[in-house]
Write a structure and sequence with these properties.
Layout lengths: L1 H14 L1 E4 L6 E7 L4 H12 L12 E6 L10 H10 L22 H7 L3 E9 L6 H4 L8 H11 L6 E5 L19 H6 L9 E3 L2 H9 L8 E4 L17 H15 L3 E7 L1 H7 L3 H21 L4 E6 L3 E2 L3 E2 L10 H4 L10 E6 L28 E4 L5 E2 L3 E6 L8 E4 H13 L6 E4 L8
Parallel strand pairs: 2-8, 2-9, 3-16, 4-5, 4-8, 5-7, 6-7, 12-13
Antiparallel strand pairs: 1-17, 3-15, 9-15, 10-14, 11-12
Helix pairs in contact: 2-11, 3-13, 9-11, 10-11
């Protein structure tokens, strides 16, 4: 009996995670859930599974609070926040990839650092590929609204900074009637701006089925890939009128990147929570957080152990509030309906179109007569605005994988860049934890 107990103790001890020192990372995934406050995450958790429910990110062991002010404003916009994450600098609001509209140079992007280290690189979004969050990783531009210019710059950087760019914004790149992959000379943006691509061939896809066929044919990232699958921003998945999901784009891209054998850096934006929050639409916002959650569940299932995953938001939007009293057993659609106790809306906003008055003080609160269970229902807000405002509070961060423990405490969004840069260069703590069982002899 004593020998058996001793054997079991040794077996358990040898089955515990073993730290493999100095093994390089297999990759990094940086997730940015645009405009997603901590309170919105709580609402999504309760909506999907009740007060005891969990999201995929709740299992991430490393957490931090993040400050987000920009170079010229206490409250950042997406362009400045993404520039901080991509470049490690404070930028003026509305500026892409550099400090200010008058800047003449810009620091290296995380994509640059990864390419120098021999990694493959990519960005994925359900916003336009020219949007303010993905763009600073690939290009520099004085104004986030110059989509045609940003598109031309993205094309010029394909194969230079980014191996793969997926998202919406097809109208800025080429004709939606194009359904096959084709060379860079066929891209509308090249004809418009006469970008010199030095005879590089870009595989450009506007139909999801064509992109899947390319992946399933066994290709790696031999040529730069541009996939733009909607004219502009993706429709809300919660509305039920689209089938392509964020997790699908991530799944197929991971197949390309893992097949490529090089380490990889991938930035993934869930852009639609922010869009819904700007319109005071809680059902859409929660639905898009659940799409984020589905994508993070996929990562948990598909990623190797030696990949670092960092998830955060660029800012919070709308001043979303989850208001008491709320019966403990409520979940799902019941949370969107009129509260059985307060007889009002459980979800409200600080600013936005749900406010009373507007340009005409006699105008009733927008959306007040809508069905509260419809996806486009507008909840009440305290102050009217055609679009709600961003807020300046600190935001959340979670991380998992080798080196995740360096993300802790209170940090600035530029610090996220610094920590990821060290991980790419192999200067940070990038130990890989594996579960191994060693053969052991009985004493």
């Amino acid at each position: 009996m004593i020998r058996l107990v001793a054997f079991l103790i040794l077996f358990v001890a040898c089955s515990q995670p073993v730290i493999a020192d100095n093994k390089p990372l297999r990759g990094i995934v940086l997730i940015i859930s645009d405009g997603t406050s901590q309170e919105l995450l709580t609402a999504a958790r309760c909506y999907s599974a009740g007060a005891e429910g969990k999201l995929a990110m709740d299992g991430y062991p490393a957490t931090a609070f993040v400050s987000t002010y920009s170079a010229n404003d206490m409250v950042t916009d997406s362009a400045a926040a993404a520039t901080a994450l991509a470049r490690g600098i404070k930028a003026d609001n509305h500026v892409i990839g550099m400090v200010s509209a008058g800047s003449t140079n810009a620091p290296e992007s995380l994509l640059d650092l990864a390419r120098k280290a021999g990694w493959s690189t990519g960005t994925i979004t359900d916003d336009s590929a020219t949007g303010a969050t993905p763009a600073p990783f690939s290009v520099e531009c004085p104004d986030r609204n110059q989509h045609s210019l940003i598109a031309s710059k993205i094309v010029s950087q394909l194969g230079v900074r980014a191996d793969i760019v997926l998202g919406g914004g097809n109208k800025w790149f080429h004709d939606m009637s194009q359904t096959e992959s084709y060379g860079s000379d066929d891209l509308q943006v090249v004809r418009k701006t006469e970008v010199e691509l030095r005879n590089r061939t870009i595989l450009a896809f506007s139909r999801w089925d064509d992109f899947i066929a390319h992946v399933r044919a066994g290709h790696a990232l031999e040529k730069p890939v541009l996939g733009t699958f909607f004219p502009d921003v993706f429709p809300y998945y919660a509305d039920g009128n689209r089938t392509l999901r964020l997790k699908d784009m991530v799944d197929e891209t991971l197949q390309l990147m893992l097949r490529d054998k090089r380490p990889f850096f991938l930035m993934v934006e869930a852009g639609l929570p922010d869009k819904a929050c700007h319109q005071n639409q809680a059902k859409r916002a929660i639905g898009e957080v659940m799409e984020l959650n589905a994508m993070m569940d996929l990562l948990k299932a598909k990623l190797p152990l030696d990949v670092l995953v960092v998830a955060t938001t660029d800012h919070s939007t709308g001043g979303f509030a989850f208001n008491a009293p709320v019966p403990r057993n409520l979940r799902g659609e019941a949370l969107l309906a009129e509260s059985p106790i307060s007889k009002g809306s459980t979800f409200t906003w600080a600013t936005g179109p749900g406010g009373s008055g507007g340009p005409d003080p006699a105008t009733p609160r927008q959306g007040s007569t809508n069905d509260p269970l419809s996806s486009d229902h507008v909840q009440p807000s305290a102050i009217y605005g055609r679009s709600s405002q961003h807020t300046g509070g600190d935001v959340w961060l979670v991380a998992s994988g080798p080196g995740a423990d360096v993300f802790h405490g209170h940090i600035d969004n530029t610090h996220i860049y610094a920590l990821l840069a060290k991980a790419i260069k192999g200067e940070g703590k990038a130990q890989v934890i594996k579960s191994e069982t060693k053969k052991t002899s009985l004493p």
